[in-house]
């Protein structure tokens, strides 16, 4: 590709206009060079703060995060975009008598992994037409070994807040990011160099599990989003009560951020088809989802990432935190009929939290028939809780 561009400033503005038409509200350009917070990332890895996400610490991925130029040798620019998703307070909790869960608002619609790459491809088609030349590209959206918020800051889209989210000074932080390494020599847009968090600690103090660290990183093993999504095993007993009714992800640290309170719009990008029925699931109904039902309800949404067993584990924990006596029969059936030991174990914990005579009856009966030793341990602990 030629090394010069006609009217590059005009071209960037045209790209921004086209991006907004596609539903990509933020756009900036930077160079695929070592990002500014590499030292923070390396320290985070050395401290083991990535929990069981071992892919974060592989030699290859660590190298590529430090040396993004190795991802695509032909790359001469890095295009960074942001797609706005709904404000989690756009839909009020249901005024209903049943216990309900909460799903992080970015997961209310179609999985962004299906949306953003296709929109970036459409954007690059326009760029190819303007340049009258083919473009080589490598596209990511939370899928590759790059520090994408660092690059978003380098491209001028905002600053990285104390809660680790990218915050735009006039639009808040409810954005999903995407990147395209391209061989077109687009000039970089000015980086965002100021920090507007100041002395505010609202996100740190509001975090239910206190997972936000002083260096603007997270202790992933304590983060509700990690515990309910990436974590494939049991949720640590000492953290279950702090999860509340979050069953997939968590929005707390963003909901309290003054920049979202002041500026975040209610609706998401037009490209993001919100499904309000997903926001506050009925916990009792969800507990009985079969594999087919789970796929039918959540297919093509981010919730699929937790898989059915992880999602029902989360549902059981939320039911335990609700301590609703009416859920005891349903948890008892789960303890009896659910094929996944992980789900049965957390259903036992939930029954221990309810502390009714019926809950104890279900636990006692389950202990006589339960074949899995880990579930047996949970049942015994739950029985002690009901004493």
TrEMBL record:
Q: Which GO terms describe its molecular function?
A: epoxyqueuosine reductase activity
Which ranges carry the 4Fe-4S ferredoxin-type domain? 188-217
Highest taxon of source: Bacteria
Q: What keywords appear on the UniProt entry?
A: 4Fe-4S, Cytoplasm, Iron, Iron-sulfur, Metal-binding, Oxidoreductase, Queuosine biosynthesis, tRNA processing
Q: Which SUPFAM superfamilies match?
A: alpha-helical ferredoxin, ARM repeat
One Pfam family from the UniProt entry? Fer4_16
Enzyme Commission number(s) of this protein: 1.17.99.6
Answer whether the UniProt record assigns the keyword Magnesium to this protein.
no
- Does the UniProt entry include the keyword rRNA processing? no
In terms of NCBIfam families, this protein maps to: tRNA epoxyqueuosine(34) reductase QueG (TIGR00276)
What is the recorded name of this protein?
tRNA epoxyqueuosine(34) reductase QueG
């Amino acid at each position: 590709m030629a090394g010069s561009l006609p009217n590059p400033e005009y071209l960037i503005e045209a790209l921004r206009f086209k991006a907004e038409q596609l539903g990509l509200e933020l756009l900036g350009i930077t160079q695929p060079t070592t990002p500014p917070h590499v030292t923070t990332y390396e320290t985070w890895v050395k401290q083991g703060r990535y929990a069981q996400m071992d892919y974060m610490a592989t030699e290859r991925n660590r190298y590529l995060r430090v040396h993004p130029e190795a991802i695509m040798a032909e790359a001469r620019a890095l295009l960074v975009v942001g797609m706005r998703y709904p404000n989690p307070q756009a839909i009020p909790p249901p005024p209903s008598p049943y216990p309900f869960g909460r799903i992080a608002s970015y997961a209310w619609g179609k999985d962004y992994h299906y949306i953003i790459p296709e929109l970036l491809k459409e954007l690059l088609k326009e760029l190819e037409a303007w340049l009258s030349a083919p473009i080589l590209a490598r596209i990511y959206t939370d899928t590759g070994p790059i520090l994408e918020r660092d690059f978003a800051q380098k491209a001028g889209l905002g600053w990285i807040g104390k809660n680790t989210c990218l915050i735009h000074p006039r639009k808040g932080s409810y954005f999903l990011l995407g990147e395209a390494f391209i061989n077109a020599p687009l000039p970089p847009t000015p980086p965002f160099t100021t920090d507007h968090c100041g002395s505010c600690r609202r996100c740190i103090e509001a975090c239910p599990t206190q997972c936000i660290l002083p260096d603007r990183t997270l202790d992933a093993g304590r983060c509700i989003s990690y515990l309910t999504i990436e974590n494939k095993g049991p949720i640590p007993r000492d953290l279950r009560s702090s999860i509340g009714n979050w069953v997939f992800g968590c929005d707390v640290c963003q909901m309290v951020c003054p920049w979202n309170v002041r500026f975040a719009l209610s609706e998401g990008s037009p490209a993001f088809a919100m499904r309000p029925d997903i926001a506050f699931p009925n916990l009792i109904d969800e507990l009985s989802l079969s594999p087919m039902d789970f796929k039918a309800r959540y297919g093509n949404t981010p919730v699929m990432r937790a898989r059915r067993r992880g999602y029902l584990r989360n549902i059981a924990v939320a039911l335990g935190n609700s301590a609703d006596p009416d859920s005891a029969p349903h948890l008892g059936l789960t303890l009896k009929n659910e094929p996944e030991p992980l789900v049965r174990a957390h259903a036992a914990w939930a029954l221990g939290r309810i502390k009714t005579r019926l809950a104890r009856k279900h636990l006692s009966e389950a202990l006589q028939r339960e074949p899995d030793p880990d579930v047996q341990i949970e049942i015994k602990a739950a029985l002690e809780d009901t004493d």
